Amino acid sequence: ESLIHLEGVTKVFLTDEVETHALSGIHMDIVKGEYVSIAGPSGCGKSTLLSILGLLDSPTEGSYILNGRPVQGLSLPERARIRNREIGFIFQSFNLIGDLTVYENVELPLTYRGMPAAERKTAAMEALEKVGMGHRAKHLPSQLSGGQQQRVAVARALAGKPAVLLADEPTGNLDSKNGDSVMQLLAELHKAGATIVMVTHDVRFARHADRTVHIFDGRVVQEQMESDPTRA
Ligand code: ADP
Ligand code: ADP
């Protein structure tokens, strides 16, 4: 069964009486443990798609079933609760809170979730160890390189053991060495069982994914299996 099932998902933005069809009739199935990369030129609808997958936005038409549950028509608090439990976000700009330590940044979403302090500590430290940042727990984000900050952001996304990791241009603010290292980390997490959906317009990184979905003008124009696992 699909972890993510989209059927006929369309998103129309209305600005000054001008309609923008950001997405037009998207069908998509992603199973548990898959690593899917979403590629396409700027403005083709990638961010809109990721926002819908992450319950940050809703389709104008079509249906979305996440982990067996139809998500349309849910109240905002219900959507927020599901988002907090099922989705881990990784952004281009890391989005760490500057006056919280690395540890506190990773712990924060667990606090929102109502997890008891002792459990939070174990989960946050485990996630930091997993991304190789356990030794930086007491640092502030500004004391870390961009690549290290993104590793911390990955730990924050992982700590709550979400059903899926959504990554939006995770290497967009990194030089190629740090970018490669973050992509390597995502590939390792995938090997360990994580389900990942990643938006990128850098085709170099598609080789880590099981499959690349190419989008153009809000439509899926091509699906490509990344068939040779030795290239990862
Ligand atoms: P990508 O992530 O591939 O660059 P986006 O999903 O950001 O593409 O945008 C797809 C289209 O929808 C673009 O034409 C963009 O201008 C438009 N769009 C995105 N968000 C909004 C919004 N909030 N209001 C109006 N138009 C939007
Ligand atoms: P949007 O989705 O809002 O259209 P994009 O994610 O396409 O924005 O790009 C935002 C900015 O980040 C652009 O200036 C783009 O050139 C830059 N950028 C995005 N991804 C990368 C990347 N992998 N490497 C370098 N620059 C990138």
Distance N terminus to C terminus?
26 Å
Bound molecules: adenosine-5'-diphosphate
Helix/sheet category: alpha/beta
Main sheet?
6 strands, mixed
Q: Ranges with pLDDT <50 over ≥5 residues?
A: none
State the strand order across the main sheet. Answer: 6-7-8-3-9-10
Helix content: 25-40%
What integer value in Å does the Rg equal?
Answer: 18 Å
Determine the strand fraction and express it as a percent band: 25-35%
Mean pLDDT: 93
Number of strands: 10
State the order of secondary-structure elements, H for helix, E for strand. EEEHEEHEHHHEHEEE
Q: Per the principal axes of the C-alpha atoms, what is the gross shape?
A: globular
- Count, helices: 6
Secondary-structure blueprint:
Layout: E1 2-15, E2 18-31, E3 35-39, H1 46-53, E4 61-66, E5 69-70, H2 76-86, E6 87-90, H3 102-112, H4 117-130, H5 146-159, E7 164-168, H6 176-191, E8 196-199, E9 211-216, E10 219-225
Parallel strand pairs: 3-8, 3-9, 6-7, 7-8
Antiparallel strand pairs: 1-2, 1-4, 4-5, 9-10
Helix pairs in contact: 3-4, 3-5, 4-5, 5-6
The structure holds adenosine-5'-diphosphate (ADP) (2 copies).
Attribute tags:
232 residues, alpha/beta, 6-stranded mixed β-sheet, 4-stranded antiparallel β-sheet, 6 helices, 10 strands, 29% strand, binds adenosine-5'-diphosphate, ABC_transpr_LolD-like, ATP hydrolysis activity
